[in-house]
Amino acid sequence: MHLRSIQLSPAAWRWASSRLSKSQGRGGDQWRNQPTLARQSQGGTVHRRQLSRRQPDRSREAAAMSSVLYYALPALGSYALLSIFLLRRPRLLHPPRAPAFCPRLGAHRGGSGERLENTMEAMENAMAQRSDLLELDCQLTRDGVVVVSHDENLSRQSGVNRDVSSLAFEELPLYKEELEVYFSPGHFAHGSDRRMVRLEDIFQRFPRVPVSVEVKEENEQLIHKIGSLVRHFDRNEITIWASEKSSIMKKCKAANPDMPLSFTRWRTIRLLLLYYLGLLPFVPIPEKFLLCFLPTIINRTYFPFSCSALNRLSATVTKWLIMRKSLIQYLEQRGVQVVFWCLNEEADFEAAYSLGATGVMTDYPTALRRYLDSHRAA
Asked: What residue spans carry the region label Disordered (predicted)?
């Protein structure tokens, strides 16, 4: 049979054409997919090559880290051991400093719980209790007189809304008949003496009694007058510069560098930081006094913040940082005397002295003297 003689019906011809086109379509798809498969194969090869390159990099990083740890850990360990050793033996690097006096009993504002604060009567009462230190604050009048006053504005003390600096000494009003004791809320002090006194009156009346003079404002004239009065009465070694602000303390030191310094707020923070980092043995300490609040009085008699939650947090943190025997003993051996303020209850006296503090400032010198005498007898 010849091929040319084969004839297909129209229906058969359409069926054969469709089968031929389908078979060509499948073959075309396979042909078109071949480059895609090749590309996928090539991509997998590149990915494997990248992974193989990263493995040596990670190995080098791990080796470098191991090398750092190999040298760093022994160094840190040696540093920690050396710091602990020197913290326990501070005199190996720092010769002891003999204190000029030992303030076991400090009268805060002259003993403001028993007499009107900062009056001569209060100072006399404190000295009758054998106080070792009088703590007071100074302001400057319009005519250049250094007066003993805690506040610049006289509203709380005298009921007169005037600043000390706006009045001459002779114009200063009398104190109120009673004043609330700041660190014993709800308690009031009374006294027959209501006059403000000059700093030189205190120096003349108690020539060899140690005094802590706190300066609250950056008043250079006031600072220089205090420094000059201390020199004039030959009290350089027994009169302490005190201020919370480092900027003020810098000016105080310049005015009379022979007076002993106390820690400012920032210097206290720095001191604690250096101590807990183990660096304090390698750092000089120019201050001779740490006049610091006892953390346990926060939220009881001392409220540094208006928010009670902040006060509770402050009490917890500062108690952990400050109330440590090891810290206070170290400072004492470095020649820094620690005096806690302002404590008015026997439990607080006990807490401060049990930590090894040199002394306590109180508004009630009679109560503190009774405590000291009874424990000395025991």
From this structure: 19-59
